[in-house]
Design brief:
Blueprint: E1 3-16, E2 19-35, H1 48-70, E3 74-83, H2 89-96, H3 99-109, E4 117-121, E5 127-134, E6 145-150, E7 159-168, E8 172-173
Helix pairs in contact: 1-3
């Protein structure tokens, strides 16, 4: 796996609806910009070799970093794969839609639900939304959210951008009656 760069983003909301949010709602995103394992190849019928050579290492790289960046217990999570204009969307999907990748996140977050995802092809600086779901109960509506992400110089045409994210416990306004 050839990693060009890793980007960590923290989104922290301290006020919502005119009220203080305590503790602040925090979302961490860690993105790896990597060389697309299938870059420059004609149509590849079987992506298994690239998955086997990259998916687990990628999950092992991102999962602990996003947990550390969050700095709080995980309550929700999501993932994304953005491929450059020369790639196929299936290239990104192949890397993140495998237990070799996702199980690193499920174990780190003590999660049992499916890891929600988005895949997309785009130019450098493309904006994308990463979906979030509760880590153990996909019906918890407070965790059905997304976060908009943009990395200014990624992905390049033969690269992929693979972010993952976590959200801590749903914070409530200090003035909330709940």
């Amino acid at each position: 796996m050839n990693v060009r760069k890793i980007v960590t983003l923290i989104d922290e909301t301290a006020r919502e609806g005119g009220r203080a949010v305590e503790p602040a709602a925090r979302i961490a995103v860690v993105a790896a910009v990597i060389e697309n394992p299938w870059d420059g190849q004609p149509f590849v019928e079987d992506l298994s070799d690239g998955i086997r050579e990259n998916a687990s290492d990628l999950g092992a790289l991102l999962a602990p970093r996003v947990i550390e960046a969050l700095g709080a217990p995980v309550e929700a999570y999501g993932k994304a794969a953005i491929v450059g204009l020369d790639g196929e969307i299936e290239h990104g999907s192949a890397l993140i839609h495998t237990l070799q990748f996702g199980d690193h996140f499920r174990r780190a977050a003590e999660a049992t639900t499916l890891l929600p995802a988005v895949e997309k092809r785009g130019r450098a600086g493309v904006t994308f939304d990463i979906p979030l779901k509760h880590k153990t109960d996909a019906t918890v509506r407070s965790h059905h959210q997304s976060i908009e992400v943009r990395i200014a110089d990624a992905p390049h045409p033969g690269r992929s951008l693979l972010p993952s994210l976590r959200r801590p416990r749903a914070a409530r306004s200090s003035a909330s009656p709940r």
